[in-house]
Amino acid sequence: MRRSYHRKQPAQKRQYWRINERIISPEIFVIDEAGANRGVMSRADALALARDKGYDLVEVNPTATPPVVKLLYFKQFQYQQEKQKVKQKVIDLKCIRLSLRISSHDLDVRVRQVLKFLEDGHKTRIELLLKGRERQHIDLAKEIINKFIAGLGTVSVDQELKVDGGKLIIIVKR
Q: Lowest mean pLDDT: which of 19-33, 59-73, 78-92?
């Protein structure tokens, strides 16, 4: 039975915001709800200002000196941050390997597989590995890759054909 090994997914970092009493700096630079600068204030004065207006005091730039805080509704701010995260589209790089001795049927199967990847919006890396004495026949390898690209139809080449030792690599996208 074949064992499959999976890479562990990296743990996602959560961003913690310091709000209201959790702000530790005694002097802070305050920006009000309209975006106007209110200047440097003590933490107690800024908290009193935020409570009077009914807003939260959120530290938006803790690395500045003094730290920058803004008056806003924290839950609404969190929602906007999550919404921006969802809008970002992650493009995966899929990989297909070919060899110099690949049959025409296997080549057709790989073409259909790459077309499926491209329809899903992924970039696809096409590799052709040359082993041993195959390295002398780079011209045959280039022919196979060109035949493969022609079988894909209208695709744009993201990275031109690159020969790296015994590997020929090309990246295509829709």
A: 78-92
Q: What is the C-alpha separation between 146 and 51, in angstroms, rounded? A: 67
Q: Which of 154, 91, 101 is nearest to 124 (CA)?
A: 91
Of 2-6, 67-71, 120-124, 128-132, give the lowest mean pLDDT range.
Answer: 2-6
DSSP string, 98-131: EETT--HHHHHHHHHHHHHHHHTT-EEEEEEE--
The DSSP result for 3-65, as a single string, is ----PPPPPPPPPP--BGGG---SEEEEE-TTS-EEEEEEHHHHHHHHHHHT-EEEEEETTSS
Residues in the chain: 174
Q: How far apart are CA 11 and CA 75, in angstroms?
A: 24
All structural domains of the chain, each given as residue ranges with its CATH number in brackets, are: 20-87 (3.10.20.80), 93-173 (3.30.110.10)
Q: Which amino acid is at 97?
A: R
Q: Which residues pair with 163 in a beta bridge?
A: 168
